Amino acid sequence: MKANPVLWSPSKTLIDQANITTFLQAVNQQFGLSLGDYASLYQWSIDYPEDFWSSFWDYADIIADRGKEILSPSDKMINARWFSDSKLNFAENLLRQRNQTKTADQTAIVFWGENRIKRRISNTELYQQVASVSRFLKQYNVQSGDVVAGFMANVPETLIFMLATTSIGAIWTSCSPDFGVQGVLDRFGQVKPKILISVDAYYYNGKAHDCIHKLNEILPQLNSVQYHVTISYAETSTHYTHKTRRIEYQELLNIFTETKLSFKRLPFNAPLYIMYSSGTTGVPKCIVHGIGGTLIQHLKEHLLHVDIKPEDKVFYFTTCGWMMWNWLVSSLATGATLMLYDGSPFYPDANILFNFVEQEKISIFGTSAKYIDVLNNQSLDIKKTHPLKALRNLLSTGSVLSPESFDYIYQNIKADLCVSSISGGTDIISCFALGCPTVPVRRGELQCKGLAMQVEVWNEKGQKVINQKGELVCTRPFPSMPIYFWNDPDKQKYHSAYFEDYPNVWCHGDYVLETEQGGLIFYGRSDTVLNPGGVRIGTAEIYRQVEKLAEVDESIVIGQIWEDDVRIVLFVKLAAGLVLDNTLINKIKKHIRENTTPRHVPAVVLQVNDIPRTKSGKIVELAVRSVVHGEPIKNKEALANPEALNEYSNRPELG
pTM score, two decimals? Predict the structure, then answer.
């Protein structure tokens, strides 16, 4: 396979100054090695994972009562435990640099709420507000193991409550306020939070969207909630009707004027977060992540893979219902300034996020592949209006970043930029594959596998392959594996989620190719891989070609069971005013055939007005496939636009 072209290479100065270079030198000195580049460091990290994690713990200067154990092995990967005799506190590590006299007045958080609201919070203000909320939680008997839930916009108070919750050893969980009533109950109803915090309303596309009418339905069905804290963020005239004990956030701060913050240190594998699977095929699974595994994995990615330094300003466009929020807020532990944004990325126009980057001198910018795709489709030339001098790293996740999106970024956003397409998920609250500041960026590829993550690509026989498409697997335990699933005492749900395909090997469900240079190319989710005539085709291969056509805004493709085989069905959302006819259908098929293979050509092409997607922006091929086959969709609440599925049901062309 011909190597993909290099689009960016790090300068010698950048390599010399990178955190990962300092860490590599420390490893060489500690173990008498002569590792010289990322590839050799990666190989050492998977050959000697205990040495790697122990060395990285020291490098990151994690605050803890550290024991002697590193990895407690097991004959089953699912039962392996890291640092089992160590204790630490998550919030203590995130706030480590926020209560020092010399940095007291420095900005900890910058927040933009579309073009309406701008706020700055200093280190001192952050620390004191966390202390006040922590005192409030203790007052109402929130203890280790209790759950605090946020039905929250991505505002500073969400972070403050998370830090306060984890400072006392309780468990944090959240979802965004655009979730419907049933979506919230499907999540919080399982984990039974003792305290609920919520915004009264939120802004999107310049409009205030009321949340109280939803809360009036949610609260009577969440009997576990003993206290409800409200945050007045956007305008609403709706009133609460449920008589839960309630306090407004500012009133809470006025009553609980605590200035000292104590931290309860708990075992490394004690619960920290409850995350939720997307839930488009049933009630979402409640995935529990541990304190230490989350912290050490995020620090590894932030310090070594993203190269975050204290002077950086770090932004990721996310809601607090997506794991990228949890990933983003951990960057506080590096000493960097946290940049938060809530609202539409296209209001009042598509420049709003780049206005944020330019005006606030953001150096690390994260977003979704879909966002880049929309900018590309709109042919926006960002570099003409936004110099982006401070920006040095652009991260993308959520779906595959296409080769054309790589081209667009370098041609229309900034040429001197480390573009890091990253991939992992809620399941591991981190990444299997991501970027590295000392490795070249190749078109269409994720730069590298994560340090100490023994990631391989396996064929259908369970054999490791290079330059062949296959399943992404991880063959050794890693610290950010879930500690358990909620309400899954015998780990049956946990095992079936990741370990059924290959015994004792984590199978992540991504259809991937590893190149000879060590990069990874993603072709879509394994459970949506098309299989006409027994040939496996990644959906991303078709999307890449279809969405090159000016007539097509978006598309979604599925495999339909047909005459004892599978046929490819392509749904297209066309540019405004266009109608699908035979001429355009033939053009689409011809373009796919000429740029892929005849096997990739859809048997049926149909027009739709909308593409269904999750609230984090991922298109949902499985839900569409279920609708086409007349199967029920068990949890439409997980979708941002569930009404879109109506167009896919009972299509006569598919009968």
Answer: 0.89
